[in-house]
Amino acid sequence: MITPSSNTTSDTGDQAPVLFFPKPASSTQQHATTTTPVPESKIEVVEVNTLQQLAPWMNAWQELAKVACEPNVFYEPELLHPAFEQYFEKGLRILLATAKPRGCPKGAPLLCGLMPLVPSSDQKQIRLPSLESWRYPQAFLTTPLIRQDIGVEVLHAYWNHFSNSRNCPLWTTLTCVGADGPFQQILSQFIQESDLPFFVRSMHRRAVFRPCDSSQEYFARWSKVRRHSVTRLSKRLGEQGRLHVASYRAGEPCEDWIKRFLELEERGWKGRIGTALSKSQSDQRFTSEMLHRCAANGKLQLLALQLDDKTIAMKCNITTGTNGFAWKITYDEDYYKFSPGCVLEKENIEMLHHHREIAWMDSCATPNHPMIDSLWPDRRLVQSISIGTNQRGSRLAMSALPLLRWTQQAIRTACAPKRKSPIRQSIKEPSE
């Protein structure tokens, strides 16, 4: 298993990178893996690199998202399709794992896996062929969509495809993937069976929302200081005018909501440093199309904190089944001393407990985030891991990765300018 022990990782930072050359699985372990149900035919891998090639798979893609071992809305059609249009990179390809469904050998192929890849950034430093998960600018997770029942077989098919390709990569890096759920179990079994070297490049915990029996029970998990602080800030805001929360209703037009969100974000610190979504045509077009697609498929949650008729904070969640991802939050800095983002987050927690559809929600936040970590006490584990291939020289190349990572970190540390945050740490956005 790759899952780290309690003494190698913590809530407060990245785990030290580890390079592993696993031993072959024992005969007992190999026998145990044969009980996994598999399709009637061999899994085949198809590469697509245009939206036209991907179009015939749209329905199968939607079905795969529903049965994937772990949900990842950033690789579902509502987000990946507009990302493909706006953020296309040279060398981008999407690997589709397909097989004939059991009992229907003449039917349409069953889509068993979907994994977008691009040439690895490592190639710029050491000029060796390698691939990595595609993490486009607005994606906060790159766990591939893989069927739970045949996940190990899908990974074997992918790595066999790498070994048989013309330009075989020496390794493939899965960046920012879940490391404490079903996908981790599948990945661990695959590495053990394949006897491939792997290198855990980074590992960290980030906030995740898991509901309690009631919102009051959830708030009781907060520190006493935090509970009193948020209550006091909400009361002080209410003294400035009529304070209420508006929520987007499924089926209603979302154009006005999108416009207000972009405008509110642009007026803040992101607008001043040029990273607001509205500052980039690609970001703006992606956001508009993605939110329209999510709204049309019932996956969009939008909340707005209103002071009289003025919007002072907004939050955007994207859901998939019973899971959710807190994509973005923004606020009016004229009211920063009232921490409107914290006040709105309290209302978000109330809403999630009231409707009860969401089993968990990923904060999509950086580790040790000063605001969301204090409001969402649960954590999920995320890692970046490089896995070698059967290509000659792969093990030797993999052994150089720890030194490369250390060198990159040393250079970044030496060159990083020392500057203060443009806003108070306590009111930063949880999704940044």
Structure report:
With 432 residues, the chain is an alpha+beta fold. It has 2 domains: 18-205 and 379-415, Aminopeptidase (3-Layer(aba) Sandwich); 229-317 and 331-346, no CATH class. Helix content is 36%, strand content 23%. The chain contains 16 helices and 14 strands. Strands 1, 2, 3, 4, 5, 6, 7, 8, 9, 10, 11, 12, 13 and 14 form a 14-stranded mixed sheet that branches. The chain is globular. The model is unreliable at 1-38 and 421-432 (pLDDT under 50).
Q: Could you outline the blueprint of secondary structure elements for this entry?
A:
Layout: E1 18-20, H1 27-33, E2 44-48, H2 51-54, H3 58-67, H4 77-86, E3 93-99, E4 110-119, H5 123-126, E5 130-133, E6 145-146, H6 151-164, E7 171-178, H7 182-194, E8 198-209, H8 215-219, H9 224-238, E9 243-247, H10 255-266, H11 269-273, H12 281-296, E10 300-307, E11 310-320, E12 323-331, H13 340-355, E13 360-362, H14 372-375, E14 378-388, H15 394-399, H16 401-415
Parallel strand pairs: 5-7, 12-13
Antiparallel strand pairs: 1-8, 2-3, 3-4, 4-5, 4-6, 7-14, 8-13, 8-14, 9-10, 10-11, 11-12
From the structure above, extract its key features.
432 residues; alpha+beta; Aminopeptidase; disordered N terminus
CATH fold field value of the largest domain: Aminopeptidase
Beta-strand content bin: 15-25%
Helix and strand string, N-terminal first?
A: EHEHHHEEHEEHEHEHHEHHHEEEHEHEHH
- Specify the number of helices: 16
* Number of individual domains: 2
**Based on CA inertia axes, which overall geometry fits?**
globular
Terminus-to-terminus distance: 31 Å
Spatial extent as radius of gyration = 23 Å
**Quantity of strands, as a count:** 14
The secondary structure category is: alpha+beta
